[in-house]
Amino acid sequence: MLEAPQYVDIAVKQAVHRVQAPSMPFAWSLNPYRGCSHGCAFCYARSTHSFLGFAADDTFRKHVMVKAAIPEALERQLETKLRACGGNLERLSTSFGTLAIGTATDPYQSIEAKREITRSCLEVLAKYQIRTTITTRSPLILRDVDILKRMRLESVQLSIHTLDGDIWRAFEPATPAPKTRLATVRKLAEHKLPVGVFLAPILPYISDDEAQMHSVIEEAVAHGAHFVMPSILRLAPEVKPWFFDVLRHTYPHLLEQYEKLYKTPYAPPWYRRQIIAKATAMVRSLGANIEPLPSTQSVARTCEPQSRQLTLPI
């Protein structure tokens, strides 16, 4: 039996943060919570707890911080940017770029059913017509279909790395079952929403064989996923000790192989190329895309002052 998480409200100054990595297909991130009651052993976001003096162990699951005032902070930030765009919502939407929700927490973890922080943020994003992408493992997102239909929603992706019950229970026992997530994909697709699956993280020697990957991809497409994006396990230095501890208790015979494979946060290039090539071929053979369709403007730009727009060369 897992120990129940503790929740504490924290103050926030900014709701959205600019994404610095040019390789990312979004310009901003928003995370309504810090920590996550899902507690996936492989979650790279565990390292964010170390910034606050916490260990990247089960504290990440047991000590969750709630950004109670983040919807109001989001409204203030977007209103400021709207004024810079001369009050023009279309200019704001185009210049702002894409916002990703759930890059360092699950926005639909269990506490969201009670607090509705994510839902309140979606209301603000719908009001300002901000292009948005959402990542989750939870069917709770279905509660917010009414808002999702009003938003400039670019994609929703459900993370599913295996359909094997033993593997699921070993690495993410506090998450909704994979079949529940697939059912969520189907329901979102039935609502004509842009939904896909992150085949992530692919675990070397555990969920990387062709049969396992094919089963996830095949079921994802059968349930209406528009895309299936594969991604291989990454182990940040802060996360590695906790993941290895879980591995030691669940797959001890693989510990030595993991130590050899993960001398850095990433598996060797040869391994990544091999696995991604196989997964990509499977996705394409089943008629799906390997990523969401690109937005017209995913990278943020600055709104030019209204006065400059009126200075015409005539």
From TrEMBL:
**SMART domains from the entry?**
Elp3
Question: SUPFAM superfamilies per the record?
Answer: Radical SAM enzymes
Lineage, top-rank taxon, reads Bacteria
Q: Which GO terms describe its molecular function?
A: iron-sulfur cluster binding; lyase activity; metal ion binding
Q: Which UniProt keywords apply?
A: Iron, Iron-sulfur, Lyase, Metal-binding
Entry-linked Gene3D superfamilies: 3.80.30.30
User: Which residue range or ranges hold the Radical SAM core domain?
Assistant: 22-269
- What is this protein's record name? DNA repair photolyase
Its source organism is Alicyclobacillus hesperidum
